[in-house]
Amino acid sequence: MFERRVVAGWSDMDFNSHMRNTAYLDKSADVRMMYFSENGFSMQEFMRLRLGPVIMRDELEYYREVSLLEELRATLELAALAADASRFAIQNRFYRLDGQRVARVKSTGGWLDLTARRLVAPPEGLLTALQRAPRSEEFTEIPSSLKSAKAKAHRRALPLRERPHASHGVVRGG
Q: Is the pLDDT score of 129 beyond 60?
């Protein structure tokens, strides 16, 4: 299990004197980047490759309040991954030091080519780092974000008589 300790700081608090929702998202992003850095993909390496993670969806569940200066354990697990690793879901769980569950964040994203400004599959080393990440009990494989992979999967799902033909487009019927 990949785990780091985090502290609920002054800027993490909301008006109700407990940790605000965006603080959980920020700490999840920090733990994600720590995992990548410790697996050969520091911020400098991402910049050299002109590649970055892009989060398209965050889900947050709260279980207990967290107060100012409370120390937490934050874990990282892979919740979903496309075969080409072009899409992923990473789950962070937050616990008090006594083991009480505090919150869960699930972030779904992909990889952005910073030059072309489009989603891409990651390089081999990053694919390996993702495949080595601890997996959640609910881990699932998800479809690729790449259009060519989606098109191929769609064509394979069509009955033979409805598959596109190289010279005719879609052939229907007998």
A: yes
Domains in the chain: ranges and CATH: 2-142 (3.10.129.10), 145-174 (no CATH)
pTM of the model: 0.81
Tell me if 73 sits within 8 A of 97, measured CB to CB: yes
CA dihedral angle for residue 62, residue 134, residue 123, residue 38, rounded to 10 degrees:
90
d(CA 42, CA 32): 11
Assigned token pair, 111: 């990889």
Whole-angstrom distance, CA of residue 127 vs CA of residue 115: 20
Compute the Cα dihedral for 99, 100, 106, 107 and give only its sign.
negative
Determine the distance from the C-alpha atom of residue 77 to the mean position of all C-alpha atoms in its chain, rounded to a whole number: 9
pLDDT higher than 80, residue 53? yes
Under 8 Å between Cβ of 114 and 102: no
Dist. CA 153–CA 146, nearest whole Å = 11
Q: In the block, which residue shows the tokens 């991954």?
A: 81
Question: Please, which pLDDT band fits residue 148 given cuts at 50, 70 and 90?
Answer: low
Residue in this structure with the two tokens 């899409």, named with its chain if needed: 87
